[in-house]
Structure to design on (105 residues):
């Protein structure tokens, strides 16, 4: 069984666990120069697990979500402007803080 099959199985039984793990690995590895789980890899994973991209991009870790969605927008997978408007309307200040953090980096 390869890693994608394992991830698909975890997704099937506990989406939140997998999303949380991906976010934590990304945050931990993002602090290092040599990252093993970068956003491109996360995006690759979402291409193999149906409906996972939207759920990851709407996760409550706004810094992760903003960074992921910026990459998604660059690759023109989904409409960044629609997602941005929805997040600003529904979340407000915490999401704006995540956007500002992204801009400062």
């Amino acid at each position: 069984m390869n890693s994608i099959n394992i991830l698909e199985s975890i997704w099937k039984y506990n989406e939140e666990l997998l999303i949380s793990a991906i976010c934590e690995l990304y945050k931990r590895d993002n602090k290092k120069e040599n990252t093993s789980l970068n956003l491109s890899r996360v995006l690759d994973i979402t291409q193999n697990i149906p409906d996972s991209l939207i759920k990851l991009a709407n996760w409550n870790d706004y810094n992760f979500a903003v960074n992921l969605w910026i990459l998604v927008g660059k690759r023109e997978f989904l409409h960044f402007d629609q997602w941005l408007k929805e997040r600003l309307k529904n979340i407000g200040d915490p999401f704006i803080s995540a956007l500002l953090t992204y801009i400062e980096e």
Notes: Residues 3-104 form one domain. The chain has seven helices and no strands. The helical segments are 3-13, 15-30, 39-48, 52-57, 62-74, 80-90, 93-104.
